Amino acid sequence: MPDVFAEPVLTAQAMRAADQHTIEVLGLPGRVLMETAGRAAAAVAAQMLGTVDGRTVICLCGRGNNGGDGFVLARVLHAQGARVHVVTLSDVSSMSDDAAANYQLLVHLAEADAENRLRLHRIESAAALDQLPPADVYVDALLGTGLSSPLRTPLAEIVEWLNARTAPVLAIDIPTGLHSDTGQVLGRAVRATRTVTMGALKVGLLIGEGPKYCGKIEVAEIGIPRHVLVEAAQQAGCAWRATDTTIRHWLPRRAHDAHKYSAGLAIVVAGSREFTGAPVMAATAAARIGAGYVLCACPSGVRPILATKLTEVALLGLPETERGGIDQEDAFDVLANGLERAQALLIGPGLGRHPDTQRFVRSLLERATQPVVVDADGLNALVGFTDLIRHHAQGRWILTPHAGEFRRLVGNDVDLTDRVRVVQQYARAWNCVLLLKGMPSLVGCPDGTVWINATGNPALATAGTGDILAGLCVGLLAQGLSPDRAALCALHVGGAVADHYAAQAALQSMMAMDLLTHLPQVLRERFLQKA
Q: Which stretches within 371-482 are classed as H helix?
């Protein structure tokens, strides 16, 4: 079960199940949930307005419960002095029961409003919206989480009209036009300034194109108990998001009597004549995150180069074949002593794709008894050999592919539209921890749990950050973290360091080693002082 501080991230179906359980089993009426949701959205709208009294709000409402949340918002802001225009596309007879009840309240309020500050508009086309006055805030309460096909007329044109406004837009639950499970834009989607989502995060807010359309996301607690949301999150396609508090509780601490071997021995098998930077970054990252002893095993011809770059990391030269790859049998003789003592292995950064080296990688993976991180060319050595993962991973391996490497492993026809379900499927099938890199990166666990990383920014789009991540993973494994926690902590902390860098410098200026320069400060200030 995920940490108590972690946030559930639900699919539309799972959220409906949580709503239904709360209403039908726990007895909390849907009307109460809608009232709470609408008031939470109104509070966010009030923040966006600054001063509510005298300001103009245009609220676009559908006929379902999302529209009902919008009706409650309109009523609350009107009571606070705003001039509110409520726009609907259907009459009350086609609305859900709770939405219809809240709309009827607005009808009564509008009839009694001598100042004419509450106006109700029934429209059939986007052209009618041009008759409305400019607003200080627009509210998107059109569809919610139920959309699964491209928007049709007139909704598509209404979304275009809304996106052409200059004032900020608040989306309720999810911007209209965005698939709530995949983050895919279904034709067109509202570009929100802020999104207030009800009860729990939705998967589509965090992955795909969701982050580009949602703006700042806030979760409104509307009365659904946490245990109901946790149960709903067990459904396929759902995920979790770690918080800083989660990571603080997981990161290893040094014992007062620790020595370099008890603090963790990590072996990094990396490097080739073409790629000498990758082993430096990976091995240094393993040491910087706290592994007490890091041994970098590299092809013997590369060792003199790495000796000029690595001071605190021990080096071990692996014999090479006449053809230039790693000599499988002789290399195992050299590695034998280290393999017996190592708590964790990292295989792959910069190893190259020489056939001899790839045979060595596969043989090493078959023989390894400790947790292993398989990255970069370690993954390339498994192309066409994924049965080796199924037979030997046993829940102990962390695979760290980006989308291209993942496609090479499973086939170019794999559909990554719903990345959560794909990661869930292959982590289970391979019985491994699958860290699929991207923005955001995902961590899939053998039991089907998926984590969506909460940190990081485009500064990470630079060569070498994957090597750093792999090094952080093996360094944490060596200190005793389980593979799933090691992967998630490495992702979360690495992303937090990138966020720290971007807060004080141009993000496009960051290079991979900058992560290791700033890591000690971020670890101390954000993660290790408040355990």
A: 377-380, 386-392, 403-410, 419-430, 465-478
3-class SS at 243? coil
How far is it, in rounded angstroms, from Cα 512 to Cα 204? 29
Tens of pLDDT, residues 444-484:
999 999 999 999 999 999 999 999 999 999 999 999 999 99
CATH topology of domain 11-235: Rossmann fold (3.40.50)
The angle, 0 to 180 degrees and rounded to 10, between the axes of the packed helices 483-502 and 465-478 is 140
User: Could you tell me the residue ranges of all domains in the chain?
Assistant: 11-235, 260-446+463-483
Its sign, for the CA torsion 31, 148, 121, 163, is positive
* Cα 366 to the center of its chain, rounded Å: 31
Neighbour count for residue 219 (Cβ, 10 Å): 17
344, two tokens: 């964790």
- Give the whole-angstrom CA distance, residue 190 versus residue 169: 8
Q: DSSP code of 527?
A: I
User: Are 480 and 252 in contact, with CB atoms under 8 Å apart?
Assistant: yes
As assigned by CATH, the class of the 260-446+463-483 domain is alpha beta
CA distance 256 to 60: 61
Q: What is the pLDDT of residue 531?
A: 47
Q: Are 298 and 326 in contact (CB under 8 A)?
A: no
Rounded Cα–Cα distance for residues 489 and 292 (Å): 18
Integer Cα distance of 476 and 196 in angstroms: 35
Q: pLDDT tens-digit profile of 2-41? A: 767 899 999 999 999 999 999 999 999 999 999 999 999 9
pLDDT tens digits along 112-136:
998 999 999 999 899 999 999 999 9
- pTM beyond 0.85: the answer is yes
The interaxial angle of helices 512-522 and 483-502, nearest 10 deg, is 100
Cα separation of 350 and 512, whole Å? 15
Winning range, highest mean pLDDT, from 251-255, 322-326, 343-347: 343-347
- Alpha-carbon distance of 228 to 19, in angstroms, equals 9
Residue among 332, 286, 336 at smallest CA distance from 312: 286
> Residue 134 carries which DSSP code?
P
